[in-house]
Records
---
Amino acid sequence: MAQEIIRIRLAMPYRMGSVNCYLVKTDTGYILIDTGSSNKRTDIERELGRFGCKPGNLKLILLTHGDFDHSGNAAYIRKKFDSKIAIHPEDSQIVERGNMFSNRKKGNLIFGMIIRTLFGFDKSKRFKADLYVTDGFDLSEYGLDAKVVHIPGHSKGSIGIVTNDGKLICGDLLVNSDNLNQPRINPIMDGLETAKNSVEIFNNLGIDMVYPGHGKPFKMLSFFNNHTDSF
């Protein structure tokens, strides 16, 4: 199967940086991995159209986790593009309740209110997924020669997508800089040891390139070379 990964970089509110969505072009259509926050809805719509993704050929919206900067446009795009949304079941309550702390160890009421205000995840943007994906889920039905890998740490239901040719879309488990090539574990973690265990899984998957939720893509080898003491 032919497959091309297109990075769509969207600005986050209040100059909080950027977030990546990945549009994967296959022989049979497109898969959108993550959707950005709702403040950039017009931008992601424009980018989808620019690369030929339109209502009828978006086979799946696949969320690496439920946080608002990754799922904020999912319900809107599902309706407009007549698609389906997939998420790991352990993050489903985040998008159903509009509360990113609903399944995390530490919740802060005030911080949660601030986040919901910044990302605009009100009732109109909450949703119930059409499909729940777990470790080993095969995406070939949707035209993508890849499988889902469960990589908790940032959230309980975080997932990665590993293609047969050694590419990994990792959500927020790993991050990088757009200016420097310094990939690292995301400092915002629900469980650091859990995250490290998830990273160790990558050793046996033959991964070459990594496409993070924040920052530019990088070589998996460059991450391990910089973290020899930890892994």
Note: The chain has a mean pLDDT of 90.
---
Amino acid sequence: MTVFGKYNGEEITAQFSAQTERTDYGVERSPSWDEVDYSTVRLEALEILGCDVNMGDLPSHLRAAIMDLSDEVEFERED
């Protein structure tokens, strides 16, 4: 399942998507839930100081820092 999250900073707004994996405790009849697979996180849109920015135009260290913002995002399903 695809889930989405948004980081709203003072100067940066970043929209992310990710895939989830179904997981459980590994015990028969244990509850199961969807968990974000952080290796699948993608940046969907980036805005800096109100301007749309293409990630490809940024240096690699800045791209990595922006992707790290996804750690602060609450991912949810969009209905």
Note: The helical segments are 60-68.
